[in-house]
Amino acid sequence: MRTGEIVIIVGGGGREHALGRRLKNELGVKEVHAWPGTAGMAEDGILCHTAASALDFEGIGRLATAIGAKMVIVGPEAPLVDGIADYFKGQESLRDVFVVGPTRVGARLEGSKSFAKAFMLRHGIPTARYQSFEASQAGEAARFLADMHAPYVIKADGLAAGKGVAICATLEEAEATLRSFFGGKFAAASQRVVIEEFLEGKELSVFIVTDGQGGYVMLPEAKDYKRIGNGDTGANTGGMGSVSPVPFVDDAFMRRVTLEVVEPTLAGLRADGIEYEGFLFFGLIRLRDGSPYVIEYNARLGDPETQVVLPRLDESLLDILIAMKNKRLGQRSARCTGKACVSVTLAAAGYPEAPKKGMPITLDRALLPAESHVIYSGVASNGSGVLVANGGRVLSACGEGETILKAKENAYRAAEAVHFAKKYMRNDITLDVI
Which fold has domain 340-419? Predict the structure, then answer.
């Protein structure tokens, strides 16, 4: 293993804070920089460049050169879809900097749902029946909806910050959603939509690190809670909490995931000439008969799942990433701790439609359980060293424990140690696993 590694993490959310916090405490890591990061990440010794943009590839390259960083880990999807890996590969002075993340064409697995669905169909990967339509085909899309049965699933084709999926109970609601999407609700991202059949089952998230040559390490699985309201009601969000492990996942099911989803996906990428290096996220559903189906791909780790996946990783993340760079991952599952992890998202009032900003945040550390911590997302400094809410999802309260129940207790106790005006959280994270 190399010593004194300097790492840049691109992004400024909870996922990036969790990555930085993990790497900062690993043997062999000298410095962790975040571009842009957040004011909250600095509390864990992460060096943040908060005036920066995650889409400023030239700036990231200049930073890498200036500090001697040889690894750039890309957190969010937008830089990947915009081609950050391609940029680094195309610059002679940056070719020795390894970007953890796929090239632009690989990132299309997340950047275009119609591309991803066609990929799955082409390579025999189980997924829901679907059809894609452009705004100019609104009439055809409406007729396709009319031939389906409720609930109706409509997805914006492009990136929509985790909010571009609508599950509609009635045809009238589905037709209104279709008009809204085509009318520009998500700008260009919803000028094409995917309409697919509703699958009934239990959802989960599976993550791998892959080296582009068929090698992969499977990370601990997780489950997130996307709806804003208790009981999984209300609008979709980026995620209101998460849990790992997932009790309804057993070895037999994971063998099916490996054989029917993961390995066919990697084989499909190679067959299509796509060398995919980085994290790959499988949004799955376990049907009643035990079959795994793919709901979506993401070209990066999940948020808030990263907050519960990384604490359960019982080996060096840096070593895994270096093995990926050197094409030596093999094919295996990562070693996991025996503990459970739960995260609870604290959101600003008005989220997800119009979150409030500017509320001062205080954390009473005396009330934090020993097996808990806080991961910051939508925060900023007010200029006087005080953190204030600066986004919809403000932070994650994370708990660990010998059981999911104990981890949940620690997470909610940590959440109660955080104070800001009109904070909002679900009180039922883990509702379907304990």
Answer: Glycinamide Ribonucleotide Synthetase; Chain A, domain 4 (3.90.600)
